[in-house]
């Protein structure tokens, strides 16, 4: 029987000709990743295993991105633990503050993940790298520890849902709107344990940054991974960032999918997820008017250069609503620098936004924008659970950078298409 | 292997941000995590939970982040077992890896209410609701999970396989 793209990658890494959904395999790992929250727990497990040397010091990436620059003494100790481990073990890809970025943006930018790779990361949004045709999935710290020690991990081969994207999205509609729409359609456990594989001519209209946003959020539908075909756009990205393109796998014609969902991108509206689940989606027309206290533009979902360009195009020459705090967070130092060169950072600051060094900070209520009781945030991040961004009685709405930027100006959730020169038309 | 205790009952999509909010992830020792377990949806949990008690929830328990701190916080609270209709993938894997017993059983998850006294047999998968005098059958662990549990969790399993490879 034919295999899905994910199944083919897993088979190749398990040394098997064929795998089927549900099969248990042990696969070799091309990269094991961790951050300042999950790695200290993994180091403890690593020591308990009795491991003394990592399987390959070039195939581990450690990124202090969550509570950095250190937000308090306890966080500083966690970062110190990770830093010391990286030093003692001779980890090549440890990225210190000042050279780091949010891991899911930094790793592809540094060329550390290529097509056909198998990657585990002790962070649920590790699924982001599926945009480049890799199998990548989030695991816990103990799996990370075992992965660092052995370079292998066990997997249950996932079944898959096929998404066929057709048509061209309308103006302002981005990868974020598409993935929010899909999560709203199938629910937060609609793809639990499964792969989400994306196909169709609609992909031609989706940039790599759009695809990163989409692959990033498949976990919010419960998926094990999301994956895109390796087309010319992906090859170009890999050529620009990595030393090699990797191995290009394609799903077999007769691969089995649990279901196929066809989505016409041309009919898709801008989409907003209401509190407190990413599946609570509404089209922009049904979301307009909700007053917000804070707008966040950034994160592993939407802190890339294209995201900042879209936001800056809307904010240029405008003023952020007096009642609103807007926080812009470039995903990596390189994106930050590029945004400076393009004049985007100046646009944000002149509009009245604050620009932060790369950090996961506010997304998970860590620092750099924690909400008080009763406050409402509109955010380009990925989760809007109870207490996610701060006080348990605060609320988070999820949206694209375009909607976030337009709403920052008006102070209420706003359709950017209905904004002209900073005023609603 | 059996467990018995009083139940804390929750609904669907209990996510890792409410099991242990990220603002407490600046440390990872079990006692610290237990202190804040479930605080955002049940502020009485940490003070009321007793050794052996159970959590029963509906669909997609543990969705959200990959933080292993979530099953660690539950285990450190003294919870002997989590029963749910379904678990999120990463939470399921983490729970097995750190040795927090979990069982999938839709009937039990729907019928059991807060404060019911429940006993669980992990080998047979039989769940008895002593309060309601009902019995439910959970899906038994698949073989591969039993193998990891038999080894004492992923750490022991990895130790053994690494020792094996060194002999070669």
Structure, briefly:
The complex is a heterodimer of chains A (425) and B (168). By secondary structure, chain A is an alpha/beta fold.
Description:
The complex is a heterodimer of chains A (425) and B (168). Chain A is an alpha/beta fold and 425 residues long. Chain A folds into 2 domains: 5-263, Aconitase, domain 3 (2-Layer Sandwich); 272-419, 2-Layer Sandwich (Aconitase, domain 3). Helices cover 30% and strands 18% of the residues of chain A. Chain A has helices at 5-14, 39-49, 73-89, 103-109, 141-150, 175-186, 208-216, 232-241, 299-302, 305-315, 333-341, 344-351, 401-410, and strands spanning 24-28, 31-35, 60-63, 93-94, 118-121, 135-138, 152-156, 160-166, 195-199, 225-227, 259-264, 271-273, 281-283, 294-297, 325-328, 354-355, 376-379, 395-398, 419-420, 423-424. In chain A, strands 4-3-2-5-6 form a 5-stranded parallel beta sheet. In chain A, helix 10 packs parallel to helix 13. The radius of gyration of chain A is 21 Å and the shape is globular. Chain B is α/β, with parallel strands linked by helices and 168 residues long. Chain B has a single domain, classed as Aconitase, domain 4. In chain B, 36% of the residues lie in helices and 19% in strands. Chain B is built from 8 helices and 7 strands, in the order βαααβαβαβαβββαα. Chain B has helices at 16-19, 30-35, 45-48, 69-76, 89-98, 106-111, 143-150, 154-167; strands spanning 2-9, 54-57, 81-84, 102-104, 117-121, 126-129, 134-137. A 7-stranded mixed beta sheet of chain B has the order 4-3-2-1-5-6-7. In chain B, helix 5 (89-98) links the parallel strand 3 (81-84) and strand 4 (102-104). The longest helix of chain B has 14 residues, at 154-167. The radius of gyration of chain B is 16 Å and the shape is globular. Chains A and B meet through helix 2, helix 3 and helix 5 of A and helix 4, helix 5 and helix 8 of B.
């Amino acid at each position: 029987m034919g295999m899905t793209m994910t199944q083919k990658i897993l088979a190749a890494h398990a040394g098997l000709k064929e795998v089927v959904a549900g099969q248990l395999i042990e696969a070799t790992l091309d990269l094991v990743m961790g951050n300042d929250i999950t790695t200290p727990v993994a180091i403890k497990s690593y020591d308990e295993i009795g491991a003394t040397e990592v399987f390959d010091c070039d195939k581990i990436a450690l990124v202090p991105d969550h509570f950095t620059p250190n937000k308090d003494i306890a966080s500083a100790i966690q970062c110190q633990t990770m830093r010391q481990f990286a030093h003692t073990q001779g980890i090549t890809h440890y990225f210190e503050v000042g050279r780091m970025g949010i891991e899911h943006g930094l790793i592809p930018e540094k060329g550390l993940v290529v097509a056909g790779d198998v990657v585990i990361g002790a962070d649920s949004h590790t699924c982001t790298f599926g945009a480049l045709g890799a199998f990548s999935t989030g695991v816990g710290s103990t799996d990370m520890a075992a992965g660092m020690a052995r370079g292998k991990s066990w997997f249950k081969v996932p079944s898959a849902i096929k998404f066929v994207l057709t048509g061209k999205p309308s103006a302002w509609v981005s990868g974020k709107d598409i993935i929010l729409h899909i999560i709203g359609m199938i629910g937060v456990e609609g793809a639990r344990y499964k792969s989400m594989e994306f196909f169709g001519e609609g992909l031609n209209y989706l940039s790599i940054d759009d695809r990163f946003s989409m692959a990033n959020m498949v976990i919010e539908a419960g998926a094990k991974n999301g994956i895109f075909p390796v087309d010319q756009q992906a090859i170009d990205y890999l050529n620009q960032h990595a030393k090699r393109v990797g191995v290009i796998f394609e799903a077999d014609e007769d691969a089995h999918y649990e279901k196929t969902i066809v989505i016409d991108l041309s009919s898709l509206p801008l989409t907003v997820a209401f509190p407190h689940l990413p599946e609570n989606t509404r089209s922009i027309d049904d979301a307009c008017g909700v007053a917000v206290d804070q707008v966040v533009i950034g994160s592993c979902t939407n802190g890339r250069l294209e995201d900042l360009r879209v936001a800056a195009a809307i904010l240029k020459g405008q003023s952020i609503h007096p009642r609103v705090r807007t926080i812009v967070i470039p995903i990596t130092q390189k994106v930050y620098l590029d945004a400076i060169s393009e004049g985007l950072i100046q646009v944000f600051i002149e509009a009245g936004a604050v620009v932060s060094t790369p950090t996961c900070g506010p997304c998970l209520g860590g620092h750099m924008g924690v909400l008080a009781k009763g406050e409402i945030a509109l955010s380009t991040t990925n989760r809007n659970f109870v207490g996610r961004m701060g006080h348990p009685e605060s609320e988070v709405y999820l949206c694209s950078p375009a909607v976030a930027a337009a709403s920052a100006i008006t102070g209420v959730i706003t359709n950017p298409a209905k904004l002209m020169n900073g005023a609603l038309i | 292997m059996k467990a018995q205790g009083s139940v804390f009952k929750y609904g669907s999509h209990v996510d890792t941000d409410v099991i242990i909010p990220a603002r407490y992830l600046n440390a990872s020792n079990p006692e610290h995590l237990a202190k804040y377990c479930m605080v955002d949806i049940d502020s009485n949990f940490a003070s009321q939970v007793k050794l052996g008690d159970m959590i029963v929830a509906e669909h997609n328990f543990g969705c959200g982040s990959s933080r292993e701190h979530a099953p660690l916080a539950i285990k450190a609270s003294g919870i002997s077992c989590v029963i749910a209709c379904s678990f999120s993938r990463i939470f399921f894997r983490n729970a097995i890896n750190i040795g927090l017993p979990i069982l999938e059983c839709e009937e039990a998850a729907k019928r059991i209410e807060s404060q019911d006294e429940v006993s669980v047999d992990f080998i047979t998968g039989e769940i008895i609701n002593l309060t309601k005098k009902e019995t439910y059958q959970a899906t038994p662990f698949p073989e591969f999970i039993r193998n990891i549990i038999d080894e004492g969790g992923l750490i022991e399993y990895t130790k053994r396989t690494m020792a094996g490879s060194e002999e070669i």
